[in-house]
Amino acid sequence: xxxxxxxxxxxxxxPRVVKAEGLYIHTEDGRKLLDMTAGTTTFGVLGYSHPEVLxxxxxxxxxxxxxxxxxxxxxxxxxxxxxxxxxxxxxLDKVYFPxxxxxxxxEAAMKxxxxxxxxxxxxxxxxxxxxxxxxxxxxxxxISISELPILAFYEPLLPDGRSKIAQHNPSLNxxxxxxxxxxxxxxxxxxxxxxxxxxxxxxGAFIGETMLGxxxxxxxxxxxxxxxxxxVCDRYDVHLILDEIYCGLGRSGRIYCCDWDGxxxxxxxxxxxxAAGHAPLSAVVTNHRVEDIIAKGQGRIQHGHTxxxxxxxxxxxxxxxxxxxTDAMLDHIQARGRQIVDTITTRLGGHPFFKExxxxxxxxxxxxxxxxxxxxxxxxxxxxxxxxxxxxxxxxHRVSFTPGYIITEAQLGRVLDDxxxxxxxTASGWKTAG
Length: 434
Ligand SMILES: Cc1ncc(COP(=O)(O)O)c(C=O)c1O
Fold this sequence. Notes:
The structure is a single chain. The chain is of the alpha/beta class. The protein is built from 12 helices and 15 strands. It folds into 2 domains: 52-325, 3-Layer(aba) Sandwich (Aspartate Aminotransferase, domain 2), CATH 3.40.640; 327-428, Aspartate Aminotransferase, domain 1. The strands form 3 sheets. The chain has a 7-stranded mixed beta sheet with strand order 4-10-9-8-7-5-6, with helices on both faces. It has a 4-stranded mixed beta sheet with strand order 1-2-3-13. α1 (51-61) packs antiparallel against α9 and α6 (180-198) packs parallel to α7. Pyridoxal-5'-phosphate binds next to α3. Its cofactor is pyridoxal 5'-phosphate.
């Protein structure tokens, strides 16, 4: 009997892992599996057990594993903050290290936003607007700004003062004949209408993932969408909190995904890719106005965690981000992303099940349409595992390709060849939609 309380108690036990290195997971039953998901939840952007990151962590362990964030200065922390700001949108010049998980970063950004409004004489701005079909964290405040059918049962526990508008999804919600520009304008107007309905003096922040993530399958926003949202936020003194926990830190082919959209948010939350699974660490990137206002106001940030700015995690993150923050790495991510799009489009673009390949950088989703889409995806995943020892993320209506950035052109080419063959042969015995 296992003593572990598992997320899915009715499922059979999962394989035991004895080693994970590079893009591969080694299981106790002797299998060596290529992980195309970067750790299921995409944290493993440099693969597992990256030697440079391990060396940095070992060196750090020789000094200290953690010192308190608010009492001492960990020299690595200053260096990491400077690195994270080196390619941040213009004007972002402060990094707050709230804790370990992305959820903690989201909550910290919500608190900082409230702090700024409060200390600027607008304490009534306590309402947060987010979007449907989104995920921003597993804590109760994280859930309160998320929307997913499986989370609805927590409703009785959630705080008031949250509203949702439609997800901004050009692949799904654009009307027939509607241009991208008109759709972007309609989406921004929905936010403005919601702010006016609630009352601008009550709305503190609008929260969204810069690019819709894994729930819907990596859908980039319509061009101009975020600029229009920024304008709406500015008009009503509403902060813009971007969640780049999934799409940030190189995933999109740029360090910050919002760099593609040319906007400057008030807060950007980053997490899982920061120390890339070698340790948990998250951060909120913001600007010095926040500090100035709080310094003149309450004089302290009313927030803290024992392991905020966890030193071993900071050492890991610094090693990870030194590798990621290079033109060569970002070019590689973009090239591998194009390789996925080109291969799937060229080889499966004419297939009756083909709908779309979309994303940015190494977040690419291939959406298909057929009978029992979820069953089809699960079959693809099972066959890739059984026949090609490759773990892929295929479910619902799409396959998401999110490998570690270290994947080579040849490795990716082989996986895509295997995938196309599995897709075609599975589809040949599968019913079409409808
Ligand atoms: C977009 C997004 N936001 C927030 C989170 C929460 O991060 P964590 O699981 O580290 O708390 C996740 C996690 O998957 C995420 O994908």
